[in-house]
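ping. complex inputs:
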Amino acid sequence: MNNKVYNNRAWLLVLPMLVLVAFSAIIPLMTVVNYSVQDVLGPNASFFTGTEWFRTMLNDSELQAAFGRQILFSLIILAIQIPLGIGIALIMPKQGWQASAVLILITLPLLIPWNVVGSIWQIFTRGDIGLMGWGLRELGINYNITRNAGDAWATIILMDVWHWTPLVAMLCYSGLRSIPEAYYQAARIDRASKWAVFRYIQLPKLTNVLVIAVLLRFMHSFMIYAEPFVLTGGGPGSSTTFLTQSLATMAIGQQDLGPSAAFSIIYFLVILLVSWVFYTTIMHLQKDKNSQGGV
Amino acid sequence: MSYQLENTQQGEKYNTIFSKVPAAERRKRHSRSRLRKRLLLGTYIVLLILPLYWLLNMSLQTNSEILGSMTLWPQNLTFDNYIGIFTNPSWYMGYVNSIMYVVMNMIITMLVALPAAYAFSRYKFIGDKHLFFWLLTNLMAPPAVFLLPYFQLYYSVGLFDTHIAVALAHCLFNIPLAIWILEGFMSSVPKEIDETAYIDGYSFPKFFIKIFIPMISSGIGVVLFFLFMFSWVELLLARTLTSTNAQPIGMIMTRTSTASGIDWGTLAAAGMLTIVPGILVVYFVRNHIAKGFALGRT
Amino acid sequence: MAEIILKALAHTYSANPKSPEDYAIRQMEHIWHQGGAYALLGPSGCGKSTLLNIISGLLEPSEGDVLFDGQRVNELPPEERNIAQVFQFPVIYDTMTVFDNLAFPLRNINIPGHRITPKVEEVAEILELTPLLKRKAKGLTADEKQKVSMGRGLVRDDVSAILFDEPLTVIDPQLKWKLRRKLKEIHQRFNITMIYVTHDQLEAATFADKIAVMYEGQVVQFGTPQELFETPAHTFVGYFIGSPGMNILDVRHHAGEVIFADTPLPVPQAFIDAVANANSSNIKIGIRPEFVTVHASKREGALPARKRQVQDLGTYSIVTFELGGETFKARLPEGHPEFADDIYLTFDHDQLGLFVDEYRVEVTA
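pong. complex structure:
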């Protein structure tokens, strides 16, 4: 679509959206910025503190630990979910009633409220009433997520993989479906091996959707809150406390407006930076495709 | 598979058939690989369903059976848990509230996103690229960042604990998502269609409703699916902005689990019921989402 | 180069075919000889793409046999039939360079690099792709991409036949003729069996030595463009070939004459006898517009008709006239006189065709 018309009246179309988003984004954000540079002692007593809160937050060891855990977590699940999602997309049926049935089944985990996801897994992994917990115990494995940080991490990762891989799978499935049959036919005629077909036909066409998948998964994993909170409460200790939980505790629990506001801003900026990188990649790929009239 | 290249340009006779594998063998290999695929997919689906099955299992048992010995399926099947929820307003109102604000959010978002996406798709205007990027940043904004300001904001305008508050709050990430997806679909509709409609005398609203929207119907289906999904599953904001009137079902469930004796059966039944609306939505848009999940940008 | 024989071939897409209409390809016998350039011509939906896919192995026929050099290959997939196929839109591997694209089929069967390079360069030269060899395949124009697709078929020494499924569909009109010439060149140089599917008779006529015209799942005629024009074996061939197509009139025998819509036609006696002896109610006479002579005034043995329109197209004119309630055409060279509304027609007796049940019947004078 390179033939856009220059027309400033388009702003009229955009106005309603702008008003709403301003209400739900700009104003609150301004409030946060406001708080982040002040020390609010009382209803009418507040000092301007500049970057003090930011420095405190950046130096806070607990937050640094939470940040580290968050990065580790996001990287691990990306490493698992992306290949797994591609693999599932490759074996999903392409037509017939089976295609619809598999589609609906696969999307199920995505539609469950996140705290219910946490609850489901909390129940599932208990030794007394949960199938998995009980099963592992019967097999003689010492599995305890409230005492063992390793078990807790493994369970959270498993839960997230269960929860979100379907999104990657669906995106890749959609991307695969857009490949015309003639490509596969030509590859057969060229005697290409299955691996060559994947590498030269499927993977290139999947690049667009994969970037979107990585972007969405990274973002969401970085903001994860309800599921681990319900499952482990952040424990044992603080071994599964991730960034949003730290922030939420600070913001609501402790009511420390300044520090929590500063932390919010830092949090936001980190996500922004990574997302910007992905965004430019997506736009670049999009432009590439449009310029050569894509096939 | 090596192959001896012979000089065949001068019209010499050579072996036409390449294959050394008899037909029966090839068919067997083919069906074996099909079987392998089906098995892998089947295993994945079973593992996927397992935790859900377990929930279903528990929801159909009494608490004493749950806490008693481990049973893989209900020995004494009971619907009491479900009946309890359906007859107790403090439970089922949670569902009603959730559905209400989700539907509100879907409507508001669509009304606002459709014209905006059209503008991004068809026109260049001052600041359009920056606006688009800024929109996407809202998609990536951690709701946690907005907890406190939202709380204060909605309280101060008197919208605290209303459905509309949650609906508006969810617009934070749903509007950018809707615009992003819709813009992708709209851009694949050629501009010539717009121009033809104007030449034929259509006014802009008429063209938009009668011609344009039907052309992007699968995109709209996808968007509605995502809007529903992300609003239905979001808990943090919904919980922060409500207390009694507009309590979402998620909040009611967490309340229950902090009480001293956890009512597992009811909890499980409540959980199962939160999945039902999702299944219905997926079923209705199933044809659209397979195509459109790539957000119109394949 | 292979001789491809289709024996008692038929194909249906439905599970329980009940009538001929359910068949995409109705029972046919056909031989494609080694090294020939053939066209498969027909309107959309006539089954030509189905037939092509059966020949290439992408589709297994529901009945009958496909034989390559005498060997039955029904169940062999395309990769094992040494077939190359070029599709309607260019199919290339975007992430590879043009060179790698062309080398791909050879690399897949483990041919050593030093044998690949000369072959690729040779094919690139023929197709005029040499300056593009190092470029990524993504940025090429449509016709360049289509040439790369063709190149992949040519680069294999063992290719027995190249099948083209309307390959010039996405090409700009001014480049079409260039590519067509290129294909002819390739055929003469490599002497590979080539089968070219199209719905454009001009394309078919310029490319092929012999054209198979398909209609409703049947090859209704297989012959040179000349044969198709002069002696169409089926009314459809008459109607489809030529610009404009043949005039077809429903006739019957009555009182010693051949009658069309209550008007006797000026045809030779042999024809009248043939019509009388025909054992069917579906009898048609065909005459090409080129062989209808239009006279301005009445004369012996001429058929009266009403002129509807005269189109002057430079070197020739098309006269549209009405006869017996139907419209027909005549094609006249330039320099013809002006016509009033009443005109008179004579037919070139040598060029009349008699069709009984749609098929041509020879009339011996």
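The longest helix of chain A spans residues 257-291.
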